[in-house]
Amino acid sequence: MTRTLEGAIESVLFVAQLPVTLDELCEVTSAKKSEVTEALERIGARLQTGSGLQLVRIAGGYQLCTRREYADSVAKYLKPQKRKLTRSALEVLAIVAYRQPITGLDIQVIRGVQSEHAIRTLVDRGLIAEIGRKNSPGRPILYGTTQEFLHHFKLNDLSELPPVEGAEGLQEIGA
Amino acid sequence: MNRKSAPEEQETLTPGGIAVPPPLRIESAAFTGSLATLFHLARDGRIDLTGVPLSPVCSAYLEYIRTTEQLDVDAAGAALLALAYLVERKAWALLPIADPPPPQELPELPEPTAHEFAFAVDTLDEWQRERGDIFFRAAEADGVYELPFDVGKVTAADLARAFERIMERARPVDVTPLAKPRPSLQEVMASVLAIARTTSEALPLEAFLPEDYTRLDAVFVFLAVLELLRIGTLTAELVEGDVRFGLKGGQR
């Protein structure tokens, strides 16, 4: 059987448990970026017909995953535990995603309610994490989103988040 | 104002040894009584001194000093002290009162602006649902934890689900657990085995528990079942997605 770049990339993506970046694919296949990109497009196009898999750009890389059409069959097999985020947790997550880096106090100012529990839940789920300390009295923790956040919502990067009105200016809170 | 220039007969010292001022009588529109009474009322803040003229009182005092032949210096000193006190209090009362400083306004809390993120929250919620319909390698797969013993196709997640099910029905441990002797794991294993021997069929985890059981009971039974699986006395199998436990080889 003839070795092809497409086959090599597909093999790597098949075994990968995390998104594989373009650079990583170039490194393991010793191919140029343009060649790898073209091969990825061909793989994606081929999987679109008659396959239960699809190639997605997620969390800054590429990964194979199942198609939504077959969700019920896969779910029956895997029996995943439903761990949907609550509305309040989603609100905190959205605030962190748009305003990061942000302190817990700033999140509370924006929401007008205590948010410690939601923050702790999101940290436990790996969706947000401490990304530094604010240079102010008490040096409060600054939170930011993680790669797991991108993966959880099938995002490639934060620029894919929908625009929010009045996004500017809130950075000044507690500055 | 009328006043008596000569003091009436009186004790000049209190039992505590404090001199009593002479009974100079004051009569005015605002107050009628002795100097001592006025002094007490002023000291206790029960009279408005601004309405009581003190000049006649002072004149009466001076007349008392001049006309009394056998002057009691202590009594005169006490009267002078009382007068000085009244004058000072009245002087303070006549001073203009400065307006109280306006109450300091607390900075207003900023209005919550979380509503600006409503659309983003809705979008994330929708993406979350959509994302739940696609699966990545090993991302949600069960069996991440390896069991240290062979239970066939039953995974750690199957066992965990069975445990969660019995825990949901369990009631909290009684508040006096110390008074209740706790069964040993060996005793619970014997109990589980006894139940398993009553039938040749595999039983769900609930079958090894009484109708009413505590969380502690549930934990002990689950540990006992795990231990019996480990030593190979019990086997586990999946029946319609639920894990069942039975004696190895179906022996009774």
Supply database-style keywords.
heterodimer, A: Arc Repressor Mutant, subunit A, three-stranded antiparallel β-sheet, two-stranded antiparallel ribbon, elongated, B: 252 residues, mainly alpha, Arc Repressor Mutant, subunit A, two-stranded antiparallel sheet, 7 helices, 40% helix, disordered N terminus
Taken in chain order, the helices and strands of chain A follow as HHHEEHHEHHEEH
CATH architecture of the largest domain in chain A: Orthogonal Bundle
Largest interface (CB within 8 Å) is between: A-B, 47 and 33 residues
Total strands of chain B: 4
Helix content percent band of chain A: 40-55%
The name of the CATH topology of the domain at 146-250 in chain B is: Arc Repressor Mutant, subunit A
Strand order of the largest sheet of chain A: 3-5-4
Please give the domain count of chain A: 2
Alpha-carbon distance between the two ends of chain B: 120 Å
- Helix content range of the residues of chain B, please? 25-40%
Query: The CATH topology of the largest domain in chain A is what?
Result: Arc Repressor Mutant, subunit A
The end-to-end span of chain A amounts to: 62 Å
Overview of the structural elements:
Chain A is of the alpha+beta class. Chain A folds into two domains: 74 residues, Orthogonal Bundle (Arc Repressor Mutant, subunit A); 86 residues, Winged helix-like DNA-binding domain superfamily/Winged helix DNA-binding domain (Arc Repressor Mutant, subunit A), CATH 1.10.10. Chain A contains eight helices and five strands. Helices cover 40% and strands 7% of the residues of chain B. The longest helix of chain B has 22 residues. With 252 residues, chain B is mostly helical. Among the domains of chain B are: 70 residues, no CATH class; 105 residues, Arc Repressor Mutant, subunit A (Orthogonal Bundle), CATH 1.10.10. In chain B, strands 1-2 form a two-stranded antiparallel sheet. A two-stranded antiparallel sheet of chain B has the order 3-4.
